[in-house]
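Quick one: structure for this chain?
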Amino acid sequence: MSVGPSPVLQARNLSAGYRRVPCVWDVDLDVRPGEIVVLLGPNGAGKTTTLLTLSGALPALGGEIRWRGEPTRGALHHRVRGGLGVVPEERSVISRLSVRDNLRIGPGPVERALELFPELERLLRRRAGLLSGGEQQMLSTARALAAEPAVLLADELSLGLAPQIVTRLMRALREAADRGAGVLLVEQHARQALAVADRAFVLRRGRVVWSGSAAEARRDLRRIEGAYLGGEHAA
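Got it. Here's what it folds into:
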């Protein structure tokens, strides 16, 4: 029996929250090279809190985070010396700067970003604040992927975007994984995410309630949606 690659990023018994009040408990998950792991759940399930903690933006309240098998400390060792990329939910572009300047301040070369998203080339001189939501999300994703991170954390890429833009972004994540990156994708919209994912976790009320292969999740999606992905409106 073959053994897959070792995890790059791991959470073990992770608890997380705000102002020392946990809203996520005992989460175990890992991200391996060359795969997309999707973290699903309704609003308020704790998905973004989990991602922020894994990125180092929030301190863990319990358990541990490991990078290549070693425990991390502090602000996630400055995002583990550049090996961890993040695309946050709020589309982190600088509105007053041009697309070109937004790419220049990223961790990777502008040329690489344009190879990944050639759609941005015609927009290089435009102010980022004048872009559509989909164009801003492509810019944010291109900037993160241009650095060729070992692991990319992506939060709700599809939020408020047209289906064709979502398809384009998901394809870019799949291509990054096929080049060897590990990707952790937080999503509410299960079908689009599972179409490109390898494994899935479902978070509800701060706890993992289901995990398995993306193929299993696709086959059983109606039951998973009915049991776990209904409307939930917590913090």
